[in-house]
Every structure is written in structure tokens, then in C-alpha cells.
Amino acid sequence: MEITRLTREVLEELESKSQYEQYELLQQYYLKNTSNYYFPNDLIAFYPHIIERKASRDIVCNISEVIISKGSYYINYRPKLENLNTKKLTF
């Protein structure tokens, strides 16, 4: 198995398990990280990208349409998805 940044901690955990437990954990891992919507049947990595910002002018929230006043803090959320089968990164 190729070691990627997504599987390193899983592989470290597997070293102390029996062969049956290793198989079960790997099955759970692949089911949990296999995409059904964006990249059908491909293994994906999800990277949340959260930044706290201070508004330099009045802006409108894209989700709730609430006005964010100048000088107040808000969260900028832009998650990234990586398709580990094709090595494509989506923002």
C-alpha cells in the first residue's frame, strides 16, 4: 500500500492490530473516505480551510444574507477536496 498523508496515522494504528482487525479498519477507512458525489468511487481527502477575517467594509454573508459591518470579524470557509486516485485538487 502506498503511504499518503491521509493514511499515515491509519497505518501507525494498524501495526498493533491483528490481521482481521487490520482488514476491518481499512474497510471502514476506505468506505468513510470514498466519494459518492463529486468523484464517484474515488478515494478523497478533505481539507477544511477556515480563516477569521476582519471586514474592511460592509459586506453581505453569502449563506444567511446578514450584513457584516465594517470592523467586525467573520469566518471565511473554503474547503478543499483532493482526489487521491487522480491527484486532482478542487477548491
Describe this structure in words.
It is built from two helices and seven strands. The chain has 91 residues and is of the alpha+beta class. The strands form three sheets. It has a three-stranded antiparallel β-sheet with strand order 1-6-7, with no helix packed on it. Strands 2-5 form a two-stranded antiparallel ribbon. It has a two-stranded antiparallel ribbon with strand order 3-4. A hairpin with a 4-residue loop joins strand 6 and strand 7. The longest helix is centred in the N-terminal third of the chain and has 14 residues. The protein is elongated, with a radius of gyration of 19 Å. The protein starts with 7 loop residues before the first helix and ends with a strand. The mean pLDDT is 82.
Can you tag this structure with a few keywords?
91 residues, 23% helix, alpha+beta, single chain, elongated
Number of helices: 2
Instruction: Name the beta content range.
Output: 25-35%
Care to count the β-strands? Answer: 7
Strand order across the biggest sheet?
Answer: 1-6-7
Task: Please provide a brief summary of the model.
The chain has 91 residues and is α+β, with helices and mostly antiparallel strands. It is built from two helices and seven strands, in the order H-H-E-E-E-E-E-E-E. Helix content is 23%, strand content 27%.
